[in-house]
Amino acid sequence: MNTLLSESASPQPGSGGNVSPGQALTIRGGRPLTGRVEVKGAKNLATKAMVAALLGGTESVLRDVPDISDVHVVRSLLEVHGVTVEDDGEGVLRLDPSGAVSAHFEEIDAHAGASRIPILFCGPLLHLLGQAFIPDLGGCRIGDRPIDFHLDALRAFGATVEKLPSGIRLSAPAEGLTGADIELPYPSVGATEQVLLTAVRAKGTTELRNAAIEPEIMDLIAVLQKMGAIISYEPNRVIFIEGVDSLRGYDHRCIFDRNEAASWACAALATDGDIFVGGAKQQEMLTFLNVFRKAGGDFDIAEDGIRFRRGGPLKPVVVETDVHPGFMTDWQQPLIVALTQAEGTSIVHETVYENRLGFTRALVQMGADIVVHPEGIASADRRVPRRELEQAAVINGPTPLHGADVVVPDLRGGYSYVIAALTAEGTSTVRNVDIIRRGYEKFLDKLTDVGADFDVVG
Ligand code: EPU
């Protein structure tokens, strides 16, 4: 049973905290990863587009959907709500919302799993059924991850929010939700999606200021436009949504997963390998590619993907994570593994989440020289801080890594542990690797494809 959801900050264990060990890998490291991997649709679009299907009067078709556990969670939640989901086994989902019904608290709670996506069901369910229930939210334990922006936005549309011991119940007024004037305190990805998924069917116009503009958000806007929505945006993070009475289903191919692409790029950099990431595209990765090059990486852009490798010795960099078009928070963990092999001092400022550097403890256990400054540090290369919240990791390299026994704390941290183990000399055991399946499709097959030497235990 999940615990009560808190609207404001509800402290959660930090990375590397109490995780129950699941499947483990025994990894023999010290050899370059070389080969080709394919990336499919982005986790952070596919799951949202699946929720959008609830808003359509007809069937939706979503293509290039990755076979990952976050997608399975959203699929079960849709099915609990009466949506029929058919999977052709090759990444094409057909979602028919014509039988949508309200679900019991217990059922939703049982299917919500370790995902934050259930919060995005609110708007569509309020339009469809007049009410919604949200259990406690999972997702990676990388900070407080509150939902206050979401609930404030839903209230602005006219929803009533009621806190219950089992979660949060929302209801729409009898006349339905109405368009709102909303300014987000921070360009939150999830809260922007919440507003989009709610405003498209609300009466009247919604103006959203300080919106997130990540490529996955733009792809969700494309999905909604295919469904009949009217959405326009200005370059200054302002989005206008004109509500419409009804929407139809869509046929859409997901934008590629740039987080997975960046992860494999860092694996090539860390292990002195050479990896071609099929499906990766330059435009959505411009910021990553600049940092990759400055750190000593080299890449070739091809029609069907990007080839990543070292261009010489690795060099230290100073990076700060930020909202798009900044350097994504999801990219810093695998990059830090590579920076342990760079000659000199690198600094990574994490400004999006307050607890996303805890994973470095295991890298230190493997021989890395990394000091985390929990309050952040002043640095000549640092721009004006966007938020109070920030920490910094100072990485001194190069340090040879050696094998260790480590437990995966979260999705991106987990991937990074596997790459660190593959970079290290000797044998490592990486436990609880199941979490990696939340966001990396066919992870073990892909490791094999690039020549990783490992055994699955348990
Ligand atoms: N925030 C609030 N209140 C809210 C919502 C967010 O204070 O109501 C804060 C968060 O605590 C955080 C910051 O705003 O400090 C940014 O959070 P955001 O809402 O942008 O993140 P999210 O929507 O929860 C998505 C991705 C994350 C990715 C971030 C940033 C999904 C399912 N998750 O999270 O992906 O890191 O945007 O780009 O789309 C991952 O893939 O491993 C992952 C964690």
UniProtKB/TrEMBL annotation:
EC no. given is 2.5.1.7
Q: Which residues form the active site?
A: C140 (proton donor)
Q: Which residues bind UDP-N-acetyl-alpha-D-glucosamine?
A: R116, D330, V352
Q: Which reaction does it catalyse?
A: phosphoenolpyruvate + UDP-N-acetyl-alpha-D-glucosamine = UDP-N-acetyl-3-O-(1-carboxyvinyl)-alpha-D-glucosamine + phosphate
Residues recorded as bearing 2-(S-cysteinyl)pyruvic acid O-phosphothioketal in the entry: C140
Query: Which controlled-vocabulary keywords does the entry list?
Result: Cell cycle, Cell division, Cell shape, Cell wall biogenesis/degradation, Cytoplasm, Peptidoglycan synthesis, Pyruvate, Transferase
Identify the residues that bind phosphoenolpyruvate. K43, N44
Q: Which Gene3D superfamilies match?
A: Enolpyruvate transferase domain
Similarity section: Belongs to the EPSP synthase family. MurA subfamily.
Name the record gives this protein: UDP-N-acetylglucosamine 1-carboxyvinyltransferase
